[in-house]
Amino acid sequence: MPKFLRIGLHQSNVSGYTSKAWCVRRIGSAVFLKWGAVEVQGAGKGRKVYWTRLPQEKTIRCGTAQRAQDYTKSAIARRRSHDYEPLTGAIATRRKSVDGSADLKRALATILIVDIVGSTAKAAKLGDARWTKVMSLYYAAVRKELKSSRGKEVVTTGDGVLATFKAPAAGINCATSIQKAVRTLGLDIRVGLHAGEYTMSGGEMVGLAFHIGTRVAAKARAGEVLVSSAVKDLLAAQSQIRLRDHGSHQLKGVPARWRLYRVEG
């Protein structure tokens, strides 16, 4: 089965990140698809790729072998234009610990969500080739700012990035730096930050804090950085970061209402 790993710029030589994988196999007139999140460990020939959880699967019945072959070629071509890198080895399933449960790691951090506003329309306007180049520069810029601010990239989601920080001020400063960096690419982004506890399971972030961070980002408009009250409460009294009350909001799927604040300056 040909395998393609969704990676960012220069990620072939980087270990310890979460990405996406997509696989296709044709048998006669049927095409078997498999896709999901993966964890990448090691680099170069020693790189290992693991499913972070059971992947999704789908079978396409094409009627004839020729139609199945055409479908497979077309599907592979589409994903190659989205920076999928061919894999030579199999994607393994992460082994469970001795007690039968998956390895879990709990942590408390400031969670940052970055999302491009109007990405679909922008991609259609630029075309696949130019959009792929812009996205490569976008991820490179985001990762540069994350490194400077000592943030940890957790996962990329389409045109979004999720990262964590030990201190809320570092996360906010990184968010504003990312805004300035990607503006030169003609991109508008929205950013949300929340502070809370989450669980890492097989390289995947799990917990209510992640969902709250995502909902906070969804409330932001183009060019805005919004933070939850949890982030504001953790900011040091001497912090020079200016926040403006953005009102009380009901976050979709999240209990109670949350007060949000907009980063000024």
TrEMBL record:
GO terms for biological process: cyclic nucleotide biosynthetic process; intracellular signal transduction. InterPro entries: A/G_cyclase (IPR001054), Adenylyl/Guanylyl_Cyclase_3/4 (IPR050697), Nucleotide_cyclase (IPR029787). Residues 110-217 form the Guanylate cyclase domain. CDD domains: CHD. Signal peptide: none annotated. GO terms for molecular function: adenylate cyclase activity. It comes from the Bacteria. This is Adenylate cyclase. It comes from Bradyrhizobium betae.
